[in-house]
Amino acid sequence: MAAIKSNLTEEAEQKLMQLLGYTKLSLLFKGSVHGFTVNAFHNKCDLQGPTLTVAYNKPGYIFGGYTSQSFNSGAGNYLHDENAFLFSIGLGRVDSKIIKIPTENAANAVHTANNSGINFGNGALHLIGAGTAVQSASNNVYKFEPIALHGNDLVLVECEVYRVESLGELLPTPWRKLSWTVEQRREYMDMVKNYTPFNLVPRIRVLLIGPVGVGKSSFFNSVNSVFRGHVTSQAIAGSASSSLTTKFRAYSIRDGREGKPLPVMLCDTMGLEEHTGTGIDTEDIVYILKGHVPENYQFNPSVSFNSDTLGYIKNPSLKDQIHCVAFVMDACKISILSPKLEEKLCAIRSKINMLGVPQIVLLTKVDEACPLVAENTENIYRSRYIESKIHDVGARLGIPVSCVMPVKNYSSEVDLEKNIDILLLAAIIQMQRFADNYLDNFCIYDEKFD
Fold first, then answer.
1. Hey, which of 87, 97, 156, 290 has its CA 20 to 30 A from 340?
2. How wide is the angle at C-alpha 394 spanned by C-alphas 212 and 338, nearest 5°?
3. Whole-angstrom Cα distance, residue 269 to residue 253?
4. Which pLDDT tens digit goes with each residue over 147-164?
5. Cβ count within 10 A of residue 252
Protein backbone atom coordinates (compact mmCIF):
# COMPACT_ATOMS: atom_id res chain seq x y z
CA MET A 1 0.00 0.00 0.00
CA ALA A 2 1.38 3.41 -0.94
CA ALA A 3 2.18 5.89 1.83
CA ILE A 4 -0.79 8.03 2.87
CA LYS A 5 -0.24 11.69 2.09
CA SER A 6 -0.69 14.27 4.83
CA ASN A 7 -2.84 17.36 4.26
CA LEU A 8 -0.60 19.49 6.49
CA THR A 9 1.29 22.15 4.60
CA GLU A 10 4.86 22.98 5.57
CA GLU A 11 3.69 26.36 6.87
CA ALA A 12 0.98 24.78 9.04
CA GLU A 13 3.41 22.22 10.44
CA GLN A 14 5.91 24.93 11.33
CA LYS A 15 3.20 26.79 13.24
CA LEU A 16 2.30 23.61 15.14
CA MET A 17 5.96 23.17 16.08
CA GLN A 18 5.65 26.47 17.94
CA LEU A 19 3.24 24.69 20.30
CA LEU A 20 4.77 21.21 20.30
CA GLY A 21 8.49 21.97 20.28
CA TYR A 22 10.89 20.00 18.09
CA THR A 23 8.85 16.89 17.40
CA LYS A 24 8.20 14.33 14.71
CA LEU A 25 4.63 13.84 13.44
CA SER A 26 3.69 10.40 12.12
CA LEU A 27 0.31 10.07 10.40
CA LEU A 28 -1.80 7.35 12.04
CA PHE A 29 -5.33 8.07 10.83
CA LYS A 30 -6.92 9.89 7.90
CA GLY A 31 -10.70 10.04 7.73
CA SER A 32 -10.95 10.06 3.93
CA VAL A 33 -8.82 6.89 3.78
CA HIS A 34 -9.71 4.89 6.88
CA GLY A 35 -13.29 6.12 7.30
CA PHE A 36 -14.94 8.71 9.56
CA THR A 37 -15.97 6.09 12.11
CA VAL A 38 -15.26 5.54 15.80
CA ASN A 39 -13.99 2.00 15.19
CA ALA A 40 -11.59 3.09 12.44
CA PHE A 41 -10.22 5.84 14.67
CA HIS A 42 -9.62 3.57 17.67
CA ASN A 43 -8.17 0.83 15.49
CA LYS A 44 -5.48 3.19 14.23
CA CYS A 45 -4.95 5.49 17.21
CA ASP A 46 -5.40 3.59 20.48
CA LEU A 47 -2.34 3.19 22.73
CA GLN A 48 -0.12 5.30 20.47
CA GLY A 49 1.06 7.76 23.12
CA PRO A 50 0.81 11.53 22.58
CA THR A 51 -1.27 12.51 19.55
CA LEU A 52 -2.23 15.59 17.59
CA THR A 53 -5.64 15.72 15.92
CA VAL A 54 -5.89 18.05 12.91
CA ALA A 55 -9.32 18.83 11.42
CA TYR A 56 -10.17 20.65 8.20
CA ASN A 57 -13.51 22.18 7.19
CA LYS A 58 -14.82 23.58 3.91
CA PRO A 59 -14.02 27.27 4.56
CA GLY A 60 -10.40 26.16 5.10
CA TYR A 61 -10.01 26.31 8.87
CA ILE A 62 -7.29 24.07 10.33
CA PHE A 63 -8.03 23.24 13.98
CA GLY A 64 -7.89 20.40 16.47
CA GLY A 65 -6.34 19.29 19.73
CA TYR A 66 -3.34 17.70 21.42
CA THR A 67 -3.18 15.17 24.24
CA SER A 68 -0.06 13.79 25.89
CA GLN A 69 -2.04 10.67 26.92
CA SER A 70 -2.97 7.60 24.86
CA PHE A 71 -6.47 7.15 23.52
CA ASN A 72 -7.87 3.82 24.75
CA SER A 73 -11.28 2.55 23.70
CA GLY A 74 -11.31 0.09 26.59
CA ALA A 75 -10.82 2.73 29.28
CA GLY A 76 -14.24 4.38 29.15
CA ASN A 77 -13.26 7.39 31.22
CA TYR A 78 -11.53 10.77 31.24
CA LEU A 79 -7.80 11.17 30.74
CA HIS A 80 -6.15 13.53 33.20
CA ASP A 81 -3.90 15.68 31.04
CA GLU A 82 -2.45 19.01 32.14
CA ASN A 83 -0.70 19.33 28.77
CA ALA A 84 -3.81 19.00 26.59
CA PHE A 85 -4.89 21.93 24.44
CA LEU A 86 -7.05 22.91 21.47
CA PHE A 87 -5.63 24.98 18.62
CA SER A 88 -6.58 26.78 15.45
CA ILE A 89 -4.51 28.09 12.55
CA GLY A 90 -7.56 29.83 11.15
CA LEU A 91 -7.57 29.62 7.36
CA GLY A 92 -4.04 28.27 7.30
CA ARG A 93 -2.56 31.21 5.42
CA VAL A 94 1.13 32.09 5.81
CA ASP A 95 0.14 35.18 7.80
CA SER A 96 -2.35 33.27 9.98
CA LYS A 97 -1.50 33.21 13.68
CA ILE A 98 -1.89 29.99 15.63
CA ILE A 99 -4.25 30.07 18.62
CA LYS A 100 -3.64 27.80 21.60
CA ILE A 101 -6.47 27.04 24.05
CA PRO A 102 -5.09 25.16 27.09
CA THR A 103 -7.35 23.03 29.23
CA GLU A 104 -8.75 24.67 32.35
CA ASN A 105 -9.80 21.35 33.88
CA ALA A 106 -7.06 18.75 33.45
CA ALA A 107 -9.13 15.99 35.04
CA ASN A 108 -11.64 16.17 32.15
CA ALA A 109 -9.27 17.21 29.38
CA VAL A 110 -9.99 14.22 27.11
CA HIS A 111 -12.68 11.55 27.14
CA THR A 112 -11.94 8.13 25.66
CA ALA A 113 -14.38 5.24 25.21
CA ASN A 114 -15.25 2.59 22.61
CA ASN A 115 -18.37 4.50 21.53
CA SER A 116 -16.70 7.89 21.45
CA GLY A 117 -14.42 9.39 18.84
CA ILE A 118 -11.99 12.23 19.51
CA ASN A 119 -13.57 14.03 22.43
CA PHE A 120 -11.78 16.97 24.03
CA GLY A 121 -13.43 18.34 27.18
CA ASN A 122 -16.64 16.32 26.89
CA GLY A 123 -17.98 18.19 23.90
CA ALA A 124 -15.71 21.20 23.65
CA LEU A 125 -14.46 19.55 20.46
CA HIS A 126 -15.88 16.15 19.50
CA LEU A 127 -14.75 14.69 16.16
CA ILE A 128 -15.49 11.35 14.43
CA GLY A 129 -18.34 10.70 16.86
CA ALA A 130 -20.96 11.17 14.13
CA GLY A 131 -19.21 10.83 10.79
CA THR A 132 -18.05 14.17 9.41
CA ALA A 133 -20.24 16.19 11.76
CA VAL A 134 -18.45 18.18 14.48
CA GLN A 135 -19.83 18.82 17.96
CA SER A 136 -18.25 21.87 19.54
CA ALA A 137 -19.11 24.28 22.34
CA SER A 138 -17.08 26.34 24.76
CA ASN A 139 -17.35 24.96 28.32
CA ASN A 140 -15.52 24.91 31.64
CA VAL A 141 -12.80 22.59 30.27
CA TYR A 142 -11.87 24.63 27.18
CA LYS A 143 -13.04 28.23 26.79
CA PHE A 144 -12.97 29.75 23.30
CA GLU A 145 -14.82 31.75 20.69
CA PRO A 146 -16.25 29.26 18.13
CA ILE A 147 -15.78 31.71 15.28
CA ALA A 148 -12.03 31.86 16.06
CA LEU A 149 -11.62 28.08 16.44
CA HIS A 150 -13.41 26.81 13.34
CA GLY A 151 -15.49 29.64 11.88
CA ASN A 152 -18.67 27.95 13.15
CA ASP A 153 -18.52 25.50 10.24
CA LEU A 154 -19.12 22.10 11.85
CA VAL A 155 -18.67 19.74 8.91
CA LEU A 156 -15.32 18.05 8.27
CA VAL A 157 -13.75 17.63 4.85
CA GLU A 158 -10.79 15.82 6.44
CA CYS A 159 -9.51 14.70 9.81
CA GLU A 160 -6.01 13.44 10.57
CA VAL A 161 -4.41 12.08 13.74
CA TYR A 162 -0.64 12.11 14.19
CA ARG A 163 1.55 10.37 16.73
CA VAL A 164 3.80 13.00 18.35
CA GLU A 165 7.36 12.01 19.24
CA SER A 166 9.81 14.41 20.81
CA LEU A 167 13.12 14.68 18.97
CA GLY A 168 14.89 16.38 21.85
CA GLU A 169 18.03 18.38 21.29
CA LEU A 170 21.36 17.32 19.84
CA LEU A 171 23.79 15.77 22.31
CA PRO A 172 26.80 18.01 22.96
CA THR A 173 29.12 15.21 21.80
CA PRO A 174 28.41 12.07 19.75
CA TRP A 175 27.88 8.92 21.80
CA ARG A 176 29.61 6.82 19.15
CA LYS A 177 32.78 8.12 17.52
CA LEU A 178 33.03 8.29 13.74
CA SER A 179 35.29 10.37 11.52
CA TRP A 180 33.51 12.12 8.63
CA THR A 181 36.53 12.76 6.42
CA VAL A 182 37.45 11.80 2.87
CA GLU A 183 40.42 9.94 4.35
CA GLN A 184 38.10 7.88 6.57
CA ARG A 185 35.98 6.93 3.56
CA ARG A 186 39.09 5.82 1.67
CA GLU A 187 40.38 3.85 4.67
CA TYR A 188 37.03 2.07 5.08
CA MET A 189 36.92 1.20 1.38
CA ASP A 190 40.42 -0.28 1.58
CA MET A 191 39.46 -2.28 4.69
CA VAL A 192 36.50 -3.82 2.86
CA LYS A 193 38.49 -4.55 -0.32
CA ASN A 194 41.54 -5.99 1.46
CA TYR A 195 39.61 -8.14 3.92
CA THR A 196 40.60 -11.83 3.77
CA PRO A 197 38.19 -14.36 5.30
CA PHE A 198 39.03 -17.89 6.43
CA ASN A 199 40.86 -19.70 3.60
CA LEU A 200 38.06 -22.17 2.83
CA VAL A 201 35.64 -19.27 2.33
CA PRO A 202 36.62 -16.88 -0.48
CA ARG A 203 33.75 -14.50 0.33
CA ILE A 204 31.60 -14.15 3.42
CA ARG A 205 27.84 -14.40 2.92
CA VAL A 206 25.59 -12.03 4.85
CA LEU A 207 21.83 -12.68 4.93
CA LEU A 208 19.55 -9.64 5.01
CA ILE A 209 16.29 -10.26 6.91
CA GLY A 210 13.53 -7.75 7.60
CA PRO A 211 9.89 -6.75 7.10
CA VAL A 212 8.56 -5.68 3.71
CA GLY A 213 9.71 -2.22 2.65
CA VAL A 214 12.52 -1.63 5.16
CA GLY A 215 15.23 -1.27 2.50
CA LYS A 216 17.01 -4.65 2.23
CA SER A 217 17.47 -4.49 -1.54
CA SER A 218 18.20 -0.77 -1.31
CA PHE A 219 21.03 -1.50 1.11
CA PHE A 220 22.74 -3.74 -1.44
CA ASN A 221 22.20 -1.14 -4.17
CA SER A 222 23.69 1.53 -1.91
CA VAL A 223 26.79 -0.48 -0.99
CA ASN A 224 27.21 -1.45 -4.63
CA SER A 225 27.00 2.24 -5.53
CA VAL A 226 29.90 3.08 -3.22
CA PHE A 227 32.25 0.73 -5.09
CA ARG A 228 30.88 1.45 -8.57
CA GLY A 229 31.45 5.15 -8.07
CA HIS A 230 27.88 6.19 -8.90
CA VAL A 231 24.33 5.46 -7.70
CA THR A 232 23.16 2.06 -8.98
CA SER A 233 19.92 0.07 -8.88
CA GLN A 234 20.82 -3.55 -9.65
CA ALA A 235 18.40 -5.13 -7.15
CA ILE A 236 14.70 -4.36 -7.51
CA ALA A 237 13.74 -1.89 -4.79
CA GLY A 238 10.77 0.35 -4.06
CA SER A 239 7.55 0.56 -2.05
CA ALA A 240 4.82 -2.08 -2.20
CA SER A 241 2.39 -3.81 0.13
CA SER A 242 4.13 -7.16 -0.46
CA SER A 243 7.75 -8.06 -0.98
CA LEU A 244 9.33 -6.95 -4.27
CA THR A 245 12.02 -9.58 -3.70
CA THR A 246 10.58 -13.01 -4.44
CA LYS A 247 13.77 -15.01 -5.07
CA PHE A 248 16.81 -15.91 -3.03
CA ARG A 249 19.63 -13.81 -4.44
CA ALA A 250 23.30 -13.72 -3.44
CA TYR A 251 24.66 -10.43 -4.78
CA SER A 252 28.35 -9.90 -5.47
CA ILE A 253 29.86 -6.46 -5.06
CA ARG A 254 32.59 -5.53 -7.55
CA ASP A 255 35.35 -3.01 -7.14
CA GLY A 256 34.31 -0.93 -10.13
CA ARG A 257 32.55 -2.09 -13.27
CA GLU A 258 35.38 -4.36 -14.43
CA GLY A 259 36.90 -4.96 -11.00
CA LYS A 260 37.16 -8.21 -9.10
CA PRO A 261 34.39 -9.29 -6.70
CA LEU A 262 34.87 -8.08 -3.16
CA PRO A 263 35.16 -10.63 -0.31
CA VAL A 264 31.54 -10.11 0.80
CA MET A 265 28.20 -11.18 -0.67
CA LEU A 266 24.84 -9.78 0.41
CA CYS A 267 22.04 -12.35 0.28
CA ASP A 268 18.50 -11.03 -0.16
CA THR A 269 15.21 -12.77 0.58
CA MET A 270 11.48 -12.10 0.61
CA GLY A 271 10.37 -9.60 3.23
CA LEU A 272 8.79 -10.74 6.48
CA GLU A 273 5.04 -10.34 6.96
CA GLU A 274 3.05 -10.92 10.12
CA HIS A 275 0.38 -13.26 8.74
CA THR A 276 0.89 -16.97 8.11
CA GLY A 277 1.19 -17.83 4.43
CA THR A 278 2.65 -14.43 3.49
CA GLY A 279 6.27 -13.38 3.21
CA ILE A 280 9.20 -15.70 3.82
CA ASP A 281 8.67 -18.67 6.13
CA THR A 282 10.81 -19.09 9.26
CA GLU A 283 11.88 -22.59 8.22
CA ASP A 284 12.93 -21.28 4.79
CA ILE A 285 15.40 -19.02 6.58
CA VAL A 286 16.91 -21.99 8.43
CA TYR A 287 17.52 -23.78 5.10
CA ILE A 288 19.17 -20.62 3.74
CA LEU A 289 21.43 -20.37 6.79
CA LYS A 290 22.58 -23.95 6.33
CA GLY A 291 23.29 -23.42 2.62
CA HIS A 292 20.59 -25.73 1.22
CA VAL A 293 18.76 -23.10 -0.87
CA PRO A 294 20.05 -22.58 -4.43
CA GLU A 295 20.61 -19.20 -6.07
CA ASN A 296 17.46 -17.76 -7.69
CA TYR A 297 15.12 -20.09 -5.81
CA GLN A 298 11.57 -18.72 -6.16
CA PHE A 299 9.94 -18.53 -2.73
CA ASN A 300 6.38 -19.76 -2.29
CA PRO A 301 4.82 -18.47 0.95
CA SER A 302 2.20 -21.23 0.91
CA VAL A 303 4.74 -24.07 0.51
CA SER A 304 7.85 -24.18 2.70
CA PHE A 305 11.23 -25.18 1.29
CA ASN A 306 12.27 -28.74 2.21
CA SER A 307 14.70 -31.51 1.27
CA ASP A 308 12.43 -32.62 -1.58
CA THR A 309 12.31 -29.18 -3.18
CA LEU A 310 13.80 -28.99 -6.66
CA GLY A 311 17.34 -27.63 -6.47
CA TYR A 312 17.87 -28.56 -2.80
CA ILE A 313 21.61 -28.56 -2.04
CA LYS A 314 22.18 -31.80 -0.17
CA ASN A 315 25.71 -31.32 1.12
CA PRO A 316 26.51 -27.60 1.25
CA SER A 317 30.05 -26.57 2.08
CA LEU A 318 31.01 -23.83 4.54
CA LYS A 319 31.28 -21.30 1.71
CA ASP A 320 27.63 -21.96 0.78
CA GLN A 321 26.36 -21.21 4.28
CA ILE A 322 25.50 -17.87 5.89
CA HIS A 323 28.25 -16.38 8.05
CA CYS A 324 26.43 -13.34 9.44
CA VAL A 325 22.80 -12.19 9.59
CA ALA A 326 21.74 -8.54 9.33
CA PHE A 327 18.24 -7.69 10.52
CA VAL A 328 17.11 -4.66 8.51
CA MET A 329 14.65 -2.41 10.37
CA ASP A 330 12.97 0.89 9.49
CA ALA A 331 13.75 3.58 12.10
CA CYS A 332 10.37 5.21 11.37
CA LYS A 333 8.40 2.08 12.27
CA ILE A 334 10.16 0.59 15.30
CA SER A 335 7.62 2.02 17.74
CA ILE A 336 4.65 0.66 15.76
CA LEU A 337 6.08 -2.80 15.05
CA SER A 338 3.13 -5.19 15.39
CA PRO A 339 3.27 -7.81 18.17
CA LYS A 340 2.90 -10.62 15.59
CA LEU A 341 5.82 -9.37 13.53
CA GLU A 342 7.94 -8.83 16.64
CA GLU A 343 7.12 -12.38 17.73
CA LYS A 344 8.14 -13.72 14.30
CA LEU A 345 11.43 -11.80 14.39
CA CYS A 346 12.24 -13.17 17.84
CA ALA A 347 11.40 -16.73 16.67
CA ILE A 348 13.78 -16.31 13.73
CA ARG A 349 16.48 -14.94 16.00
CA SER A 350 16.08 -17.98 18.26
CA LYS A 351 16.63 -20.31 15.27
CA ILE A 352 19.72 -18.33 14.23
CA ASN A 353 21.12 -18.46 17.77
CA MET A 354 20.82 -22.24 17.77
CA LEU A 355 23.08 -22.30 14.71
CA GLY A 356 25.54 -19.89 16.30
CA VAL A 357 25.42 -17.36 13.46
CA PRO A 358 26.25 -13.79 14.62
CA GLN A 359 23.71 -11.03 14.05
CA ILE A 360 23.63 -7.27 13.65
CA VAL A 361 20.85 -4.76 13.00
CA LEU A 362 20.85 -2.25 10.15
CA LEU A 363 18.62 0.67 11.16
CA THR A 364 17.51 2.28 7.89
CA LYS A 365 15.70 5.52 6.95
CA VAL A 366 17.33 7.45 9.79
CA ASP A 367 17.03 10.65 7.77
CA GLU A 368 13.27 10.19 7.44
CA ALA A 369 12.99 9.44 11.16
CA CYS A 370 14.90 12.50 12.33
CA PRO A 371 14.98 15.90 10.57
CA LEU A 372 18.24 16.69 12.39
CA VAL A 373 19.90 13.80 10.56
CA ALA A 374 18.21 14.79 7.29
CA GLU A 375 19.81 18.22 7.66
CA ASN A 376 23.25 16.77 8.36
CA THR A 377 24.17 13.07 8.39
CA GLU A 378 26.96 13.85 10.85
CA ASN A 379 24.26 14.43 13.49
CA ILE A 380 23.39 10.74 13.54
CA TYR A 381 25.26 9.95 16.75
CA ARG A 382 24.27 13.26 18.33
CA SER A 383 20.54 12.80 17.75
CA ARG A 384 18.79 11.82 20.97
CA TYR A 385 15.90 10.50 18.89
CA ILE A 386 18.06 8.13 16.81
CA GLU A 387 19.85 7.01 19.96
CA SER A 388 16.47 6.13 21.48
CA LYS A 389 15.49 4.18 18.35
CA ILE A 390 18.77 2.24 18.44
CA HIS A 391 18.12 1.27 22.06
CA ASP A 392 14.48 0.44 21.25
CA VAL A 393 15.24 -1.92 18.36
CA GLY A 394 18.01 -3.56 20.36
CA ALA A 395 15.63 -4.23 23.24
CA ARG A 396 12.86 -5.54 20.99
CA LEU A 397 15.12 -7.99 19.16
CA GLY A 398 17.36 -8.81 22.11
CA ILE A 399 20.47 -7.57 20.30
CA PRO A 400 23.14 -5.43 22.03
CA VAL A 401 23.25 -1.74 21.12
CA SER A 402 26.85 -2.22 19.95
CA CYS A 403 25.47 -4.47 17.19
CA VAL A 404 23.01 -1.87 15.84
CA MET A 405 24.33 0.12 12.88
CA PRO A 406 22.29 3.10 11.61
CA VAL A 407 22.56 3.59 7.85
CA LYS A 408 21.10 5.76 5.13
CA ASN A 409 20.43 4.11 1.78
CA TYR A 410 20.63 6.03 -1.46
CA SER A 411 17.07 6.89 -2.49
CA SER A 412 16.52 10.40 -3.85
CA GLU A 413 20.20 11.17 -4.43
CA VAL A 414 21.71 10.97 -7.93
CA ASP A 415 25.32 11.46 -6.82
CA LEU A 416 27.35 9.79 -4.09
CA GLU A 417 27.75 11.56 -0.75
CA LYS A 418 30.76 11.01 1.51
CA ASN A 419 28.84 10.77 4.79
CA ILE A 420 26.32 8.26 3.43
CA ASP A 421 29.20 6.13 2.14
CA ILE A 422 30.96 6.19 5.52
CA LEU A 423 27.85 4.85 7.33
CA LEU A 424 27.37 2.10 4.73
CA LEU A 425 31.04 1.07 4.83
CA ALA A 426 31.08 1.04 8.65
CA ALA A 427 28.18 -1.44 8.56
CA ILE A 428 29.96 -3.72 6.05
CA ILE A 429 33.13 -3.70 8.18
CA GLN A 430 31.08 -4.74 11.21
CA MET A 431 29.63 -7.62 9.18
CA GLN A 432 33.13 -8.75 8.21
CA ARG A 433 34.27 -8.71 11.83
CA PHE A 434 31.26 -10.70 12.97
CA ALA A 435 31.69 -13.22 10.15
CA ASP A 436 35.31 -13.65 11.22
CA ASN A 437 34.14 -14.51 14.73
CA TYR A 438 31.85 -17.16 13.27
CA LEU A 439 34.47 -18.63 10.92
CA ASP A 440 36.97 -18.86 13.77
CA ASN A 441 34.84 -21.74 15.05
CA PHE A 442 35.86 -23.77 11.99
CA CYS A 443 39.60 -23.09 12.21
CA ILE A 444 41.80 -25.95 13.38
CA TYR A 445 44.92 -24.91 15.20
CA ASP A 446 47.95 -27.07 15.90
CA GLU A 447 48.62 -26.93 19.58
CA LYS A 448 52.35 -26.86 20.38
CA PHE A 449 53.59 -27.38 23.87
CA ASP A 450 57.02 -26.80 25.21
1. 290
2. 40
3. 17
4. 999 999 999 999 999 999
5. 13
